[in-house]
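Work Package 4 report. The design task specified in the project plan requires that, given a folded chain encoded as structure tokens, an amino acid be chosen for each position. We show below one input record used in the internal validation round.
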């Protein structure tokens, strides 16, 4: 079977680079590339995507080996009807690793047709590193890399107003574009870049907060043969996703004209305020995901579907969502319940094998954003700690020990965090371990030992887990 390439596929001529995308992972390929392909097909958007690898280890070389092509399979159930689709994604026209060829990366800034910057570098990606210097090739952080690219474009086009870019980050942090913009301005100050450039960034470029929603299990390694039988080529980058799709972008009429999704059936909402959508989705869907990963892996499950259908873990996660997360949200209760029920239907999607290990990446930063606010709001509103959320928090801490009952846990985080957690777990006192972890302001933005009752609750929970295991340990808390 031939390897997938443009030579053995009937693919239209290369598209002009209209979008630079930071990130090459499963989510972006099943979400942004899919959305842009629909625009290209249905409204002649004519947008090619240049994918930039944001960290030193990535998949750009694999993308280039397949000429940017890959297959997207989407499956789901809507109103009782099974929906299945297969599509060859063709709009990636360049894959660039700035760690290997920084000059090639900077040259992207000179593309005349370029209009958009889109990114998803995980919640940890939009961060400031004071150690980043202008002359580094490349700087370490995504915002620093982007600042260098923008400065290159500003200089190349001599500050032309119409060469500013529309910047649409998809990282799952609140006010993602506002945060990214502030960090870019910090780098402008750190590097003593001209005031004219700062003015150009603030007035010629536009920044748009976003919310993205689609479950993307990614490469179906356990069922790859069944998928391969549906293809007449070899695809090492095949990706699977659910049919559900939602993209909420803050913007005005001019952004709607630039991104004419209203001329398609795709659920892209360009709105004045995305906060209601964001809070609902992050706390319920993403919160449930993040809470279940360490807890369910320690229990012995492997997939999201298995977690929500298992006799112990299923009711646990459902109660965590309906009894501990929903009460903290100041929205219409019927709408919240309907949304939560839809989330659990998506979790049960029989066509999606969403491996827990694949969503364990950066679990600490995810917990801070997705779950911790619900825990704190519950305590503030009711005066007591939410027992299942606290148990999930304790499981997160236990997960980062790296192994449980002689089974290695798929810890996947920043190397500094992994090292710090290993050092803390080497301490002999569980009391010291918990105190040190909860005190990490770099993890939680606060000293969680100051949260009434939390430290002792975590210590007690971890003691029960060690003595009785996950299910029996939890039963001892009630």
């Amino acid at each position: 079977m031939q390897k997938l390439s443009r030579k053995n596929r009937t693919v239209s001529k290369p598209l002009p680079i209209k979008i630079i995308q930071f990130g090459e992972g499963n989510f972006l390929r099943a979400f942004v590339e899919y959305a842009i392909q629909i625009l290209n097909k249905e409204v002649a958007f004519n947008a090619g995507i240049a994918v930039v690898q944001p960290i030193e280890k990535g998949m750009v070389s694999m993308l280039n080996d397949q000429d940017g092509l890959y297959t997207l399979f989407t499956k789901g159930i809507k109103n009782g009807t099974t929906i299945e689709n297969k599509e060859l994604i063709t709009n990636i026209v360049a894959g660039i690793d700035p760690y290997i060829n920084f000059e090639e990366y900077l040259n992207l800034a000179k593309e005349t047709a370029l209009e958009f910057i889109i990114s998803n570098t995980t919640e940890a990606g939009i961060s400031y590193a004071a150690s980043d210097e202008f002359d580094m090739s490349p700087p370490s952080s995504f915002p620093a890399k982007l600042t260098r690219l923008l400065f290159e474009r500003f200089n190349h086009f001599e500050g032309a107003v119409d060469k500013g870019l529309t910047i649409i980050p998809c990282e799952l942090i609140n006010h993602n574009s506002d945060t990214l913009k502030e960090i870019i301005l910090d780098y402008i100050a750190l590097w003593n870049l001209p005031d004219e450039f700062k003015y150009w960034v603030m007035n010629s470029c536009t920044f748009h907060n976003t919310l993205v929603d689609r479950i993307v299990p990614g490469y179906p390694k356990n069922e790859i043969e069944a998928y391969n039988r549906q293809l007449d080529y070899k695809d090492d980058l095949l990706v699977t996703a659910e049919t559900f799709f939602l993209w909420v972008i803050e913007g005005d009429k001019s952004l709607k004209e630039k991104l004419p999704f209203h001329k398609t059936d795709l659920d892209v909402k360009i709105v004045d305020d995305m906060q209601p959508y964001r809070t609902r989705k992050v706390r319920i869907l993403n919160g449930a995901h993040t809470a279940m990963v360490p807890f369910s892996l320690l229990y012995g499950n492997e997939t999201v579907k298995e977690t929500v259908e298992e006799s112990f873990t299923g009711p646990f996660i459902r109660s965590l969502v309906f009894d501990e997360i929903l009460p903290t949200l100041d929205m219409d209760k019927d709408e919240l319940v309907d949304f939560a029920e839809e989330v659990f239907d998506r979790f049960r999607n029989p066509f999606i094998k969403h491996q827990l290990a694949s969503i364990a990446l950066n679990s600490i930063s995810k917990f801070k954003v997705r779950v911790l606010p619900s825990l704190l709001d519950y305590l503030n509103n009711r005066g007591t700690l939410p027992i299942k959320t606290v148990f999930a928090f304790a499981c997160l801490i236990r997960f980062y020990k790296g192994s449980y009952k002689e089974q290695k846990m798929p810890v996947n985080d920043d190397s500094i965090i992994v090292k710090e957690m290993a050092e803390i777990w080497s301490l002999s006192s569980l009391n010291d371990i918990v105190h040190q972890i909860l005190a990490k302001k770099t993890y939680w933005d606060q000293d969680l030992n100051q949260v009434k009752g939390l430290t002792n609750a975590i210590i007690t929970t971890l003691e029960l887990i060690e003595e009785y295991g996950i299910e029996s340990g939890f039963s001892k808390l009630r």
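Residues 275-475 form a domain with the N-(1-d-carboxylethyl)-l-norvaline Dehydrogenase; domain 2 fold (CATH 1.10.1040.10). Validation will be extended to a larger panel in the next phase.
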